[in-house]
């Protein structure tokens, strides 16, 4: 065992994902400790988004959607050749870029005189102190930010440890494109990978415990998306994974038999080459020993924070102790973590002028096939919050706009929900081509409090761009026309 060294920095951070951005020039003449154990599967620096999350997944979504071009082209009279996805080339293009960025980020931090990097797992020893058993370092910080993220939740069924079984942390580095993939789960990660693997040419079977996919979304969108997914790959509802058995237990290349159980108790078997488990993510509060350090947790294991992102202990904010990202946020989204990091960066530097993080109009997108984007309330939530009689909704089909005709689109929809008394937008849900971009004017209107009529008529919409689907959705709402409204 190494002798213990004690560091007393002005700022310590656990987590090099969103936490890494907190080391602003303000800290140049002060001492900072950054602790990160690295991504479990690769040891990489820089957290989930860069290494195993948003960025590599979307770099796979792009080739997968290009591989679908022949079906899209055929709708408008163009015949394209049979697509062939070169998985090793796609994988290497993605990770050559990402691994270099991660390595460069680590090297940069290692080279900074004012920053000590602890590249090991650390555990809290008090609200603003932690230790690394491996390096024998104890850190007692003036201010501490916990940005330790989340990890995949894996159901503990027999065979789950087989090498053919993956989470999003490992599946993107497979040697070959699997011919048959079983995807377990009906949420973000499961739906994105179902789109990727089916687009690239794998035979995909997606199973979900209940009926329908993306069930946390507006019901109309969840139903429309599920119907499209069912056309694009095999979806089996009301099934859980009971166990997995390797065909050849001594090899990690052969297939596996997945034993499923239906909700009415029947058993089924599936032969696949690879299993992706995407059944949610858990915050890493247990890994850092948050409860043992006396910090408050939500029921789902997240750290409890106030609007200034200060961590609570016994219901009270601990001065100089902050959290950002998946470890504390209900929405496990990178743009939320980034916003919280900007707020915390300000609060660390200005303890006498604390700012709050914004929780209104948080959008997100599911980059599946089709793509979905949403912001604000679902229709059910809106009806509950303001009364069903006070809401107005409009669902605009892409296919009923000029660009939708050009695309020969058959499934794209944009749904908007507003308060019919004031015209304020309450929620927006878009499914279809480029929905993650199309939704942005609605996020903007909600963020700046622009009513639906003014949002529609107070600006030009380029004709005949696909964005007209959003203009038409807004114009379809039954909302008051403000006095002197734009024409
Ligand atoms: C497959 C996938 C796709 C995604 N796609 C999107 C997307 O398209 N858009 C979007 O907005 N969001 C997406 N997300 C979510 C997004 O990646 C996360 O919300 C975001 O990366 C969280 O950042 P963070 O800083 O909270 O945590 P992380 O980036 O996970 O950083 C936490 C760091 O803390 C380290 N750590 C944990 N415990 C310890 C410890 N005890 N000691 C030392 N170090 C420790 C970890 O190793 C890790 O490096 C996706 C997530 C996944 C998994
Ligand atoms: N594009 C994006 O923004 C993006 C992409 C990926 C992930 N993420 C973030 O990461 C989070 C985690 O993603 P996720 O897809 O793992 O979680 P999720 O919460 O979106 O979906 C989890 C799914 O697993 C199912 N499930 C849970 N426990 C199960 C069990 N024991 N057996 C069978 N099924 C089970 C749930 O019913 C649900 O369908 C998301 O909530 C999101 O915040 C965002």
TrEMBL record:
Presence of keyword Cytoplasm: no
Pfam families found in the cross-reference section: Pyr_redox_2, Pyr_redox_dim
Disulfide bonds: 49-54
Span of domain FAD/NAD(P)-binding: 10-341
Enzymatic class: oxidoreductase
Cofactor(s) of this protein: FAD
Cofactor binding description: Binds 1 FAD per subunit.
Residue ranges of domain Pyridine nucleotide-disulphide oxidoreductase dimerisation in the record: 362-473
Residues that coordinate or bind FAD: 58, 326, 332-335
A Gene Ontology molecular function term of the record: dihydrolipoyl dehydrogenase (NADH) activity
GO terms for biological process, alphabetical: 2-oxoglutarate metabolic process
Keywords tagged on the record: Disulfide bond, FAD, Flavoprotein, NAD, Nucleotide-binding, Oxidoreductase, Redox-active center
Catalytic residues (UniProt): 463 (proton acceptor)
EC number(s) recorded for this UniProt protein: 1.8.1.15
Binding site for NAD(+): 185-192, 280
Alphabetized InterPro entries for the sequence: Class-I_Pyr_Nuc-Dis_Oxidored (IPR050151), FAD/NAD-bd_sf (IPR036188), FAD/NAD-binding_dom (IPR023753), FAD/NAD-linked_Rdtase_dimer_sf (IPR016156), Pyr_nuc-diS_OxRdtase (IPR001100), Pyr_nucl-diS_OxRdtase_dimer (IPR004099), Pyr_OxRdtase_I_AS (IPR012999)
Family: Belongs to the class-I pyridine nucleotide-disulfide oxidoreductase family.
Protein name as annotated: Mycothione reductase
Species annotation: Nesterenkonia salmonea
């Amino acid at each position: 065992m190494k002798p213990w060294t004690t560091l007393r920095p002005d700022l310590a951070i656990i987590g090099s994902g969103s936490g890494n951005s907190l080391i602003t020039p303000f800290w140049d003449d002060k001492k900072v400790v950054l602790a990160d154990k690295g991504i479990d599967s690769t040891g990489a620096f820089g957290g989930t988004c860069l290494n195993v999350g948003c960025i590599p997944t979307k770099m796979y979504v792009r080739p997968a959607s290009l591989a679908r071009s022949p079906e899209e082209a055929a709708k408008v009279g163009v015949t394209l050749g049979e697509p062939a996805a070169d998985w090793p080339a796609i994988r290497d293009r993605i990770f050559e870029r990402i691994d270099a960025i991660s390595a460069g980020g680590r090297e940069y931090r290692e080279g900074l005189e004012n920053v000590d990097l602890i590249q090991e797992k650390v555990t809290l020893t008090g609200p603003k102190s932690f230790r690394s058993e491996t390096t024998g370092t104890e850190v007692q910080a003036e201010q501490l930010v916990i940005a330790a993220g989340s990890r995949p939740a894996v159901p503990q069924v027999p065979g789950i440890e087989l090498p053919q079984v993956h989470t999003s942390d490992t599946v993107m580095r497979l040697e070959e494109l699997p011919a048959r993939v079983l995807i377990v789960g009906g949420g973000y990660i499961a739906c994105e990978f179902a789109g990727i693997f089916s687009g690239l040419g794998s035979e995909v079977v997606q199973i979900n415990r209940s009926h329908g996919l993306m069930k946390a979304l507006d019901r109309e969108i969840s139903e429309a998306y599920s119907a499209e997914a069912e056309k694009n790959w095999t979806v089996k509802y009301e099934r859980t994974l009971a166990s997995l058995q390797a065909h050849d237990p001594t090899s990690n290349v052969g297939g596996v038999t997945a034993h499923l159980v239906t909700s009415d108790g029947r058993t089924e078997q599936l032969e696949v080459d690879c299993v992706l488990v995407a059944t949610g993510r858990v915050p890493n509060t247990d890994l850092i020993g948050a409860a043992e350090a006396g910090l408050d947790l939500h029921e789902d294991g997240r750290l409890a924070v106030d609007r200034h992102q200060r961590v609570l202990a016994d219901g009270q904010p601990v001065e100089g102790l902050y959290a950002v990202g998946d470890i504390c946020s209900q929405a496990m989204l990178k743009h939320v973590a980034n916003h919280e990091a900007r707020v915390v960066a300000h609060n660390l530097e200005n303890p006498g002028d604390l700012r709050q993080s914004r929780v209104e109009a948080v959008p997100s997108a599911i980059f599946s096939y089709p793509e979905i984007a949403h912001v604000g309330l679902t229709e059910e939530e809106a009806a509950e919050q303001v009364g069903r009689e006070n809401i107005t909704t409009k669902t605009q089909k892409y296919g009923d706009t000029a660009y939708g005709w050009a695309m020969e689109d058959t499934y794209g929809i944009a749904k908007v929900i507003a308060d019919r008394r004031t015209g304020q937008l309450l929620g927006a849900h878009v499914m279809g081509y480029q929905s993650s971009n199309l939704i942005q004017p609605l996020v903007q209107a909600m963020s700046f409090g622009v009513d639906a009529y003014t949002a529609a008529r107070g600006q030009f919409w380029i004709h005949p761009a696909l964005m007209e689907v959003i203009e038409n959705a807004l114009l379809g709402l039954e909302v008051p026309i403000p006095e002197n409204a734009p024409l």
